[in-house]
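Hey L., structure's done. Input below.
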Amino acid sequence: MTTPTWEPNPGPQIEAMHSEAFEVYFGGSAGGGKSFLLLLLALTQHRKSIIFRREYPQLKEMIDESRGLLRGTTAKFNGQSMLWRGIPGGRQLEFGACQHEDDKHRYQGRPHDLKAFDEISAFSESQYRFLIGWARSTKKNQRVRVMACGNPPMNTDGEWVIRRWGAWLDPQHRNPAKHGELRWYAVIDGDDVEREDGQPFEWKGETIQPRSRTFIPARLSDNPYLVNTDYEATLQGLPEPLRSQLLYGDFNISVEDNPYQVIPTEWIRQAQRLWETSEKPDIPLSTLGCDVARGGKDQTILSKRYGHWYAPLIKIPGSQSKDGNAVATFIKGALEEKEQDTTIIIDIIGVGASPYDILVSNAMNVIGYNAASKSRATDKTGKLHFANKRAESWWQFREALDSLNGEGIALPPDPELLSDLCAPRWKLTARGIQVESKDEIIKRLGRSPDCGDAVVMAKENQDISKYLVFL
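Output:
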């Protein structure tokens, strides 16, 4: 039985196949040959591969394509385990899915020398980071890599893709990269930090090995199998911004908000642009909001507000704020001598109770914030009530950011803050407006919106303290 020959299309597919980057983002417009590239890598260059889609039904077309490519070979497909064995060259290919955030744990500790993702922006950032953690091989000289394919994100949940490959996709990036250019990154204290090269370095007694990353664009015109079909006309008939995103792979178009996103993305961006053109007002510190880390990768966030102007956030890794004494010390250290009497708003649910008690015992002006407590307020129209204090706080912050009737809020241009403020969604219940809890957001996105919660709490002040619950 002869082994079939599979060849990449000239242009971007070949460039992606031969890129030396550990992590490649390939794609842009629809029809650029993304799915075929993933199959090609698995069938020709890797011994143990897995291709992910967010949901299993989305894999059907790719599985059918793999059947066509492997027809006439000794390869056998097990539909129950979603696994091809006996691929020529001693290779195997698995298909996987992570419909729910916690589904990622099913793949814990399972090594593959190719971790591939089709429609990467459908995954949460935490799923992606978790799954690529087991990209490895015990086979000598076997290439190990990650290949992520996809179109521009359609909503704010997928904007992390633009941040991760910001050097190639963000036109305002401080150090833009050319398509196909390798950049090196290392995770330091939980953050991606760009390095000059791939040389290992010492950090806090640990040797850290940077990994390379790149982006290679592909368009419909690069795919000879689709370029002469009516698929281009189909894309041309789509409404904007979908037309430009899928036809041209345009990453610069603002992604569409979820209809139930609490705060519109553009209102947040407007507040961040205002910050860049304004200066800190010469007034006393109004409030300090504190969201306490729950452990793990969470951060304790301090947000200082001067009227309508917010200072850059103070971020403390959870590893450095493990107990109430540490959090209370950071809060006191963040306040200048003349600011010691400032109102401190701190979340008292769970781990926040301890630093609250300590600050009270030190005669600090602290208010305990309980997101689950009752709300007596209404929205600006006076018609809508709130299910709890959390819904009231987030909705009132939304109203303060209103691009037409807001308060002129100026927010620091922090990408993490932007992402967190875009995260919560709302619904109307019999009790009034209800905003997703922090736990619900973590379950959906795999991360905690700590920066957003701290800023929203900083908007509170003593005038509404009667609605807050004290310990």
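The chain has 15 helices and 20 strands. The radius of gyration is 25 Å.

-- N.
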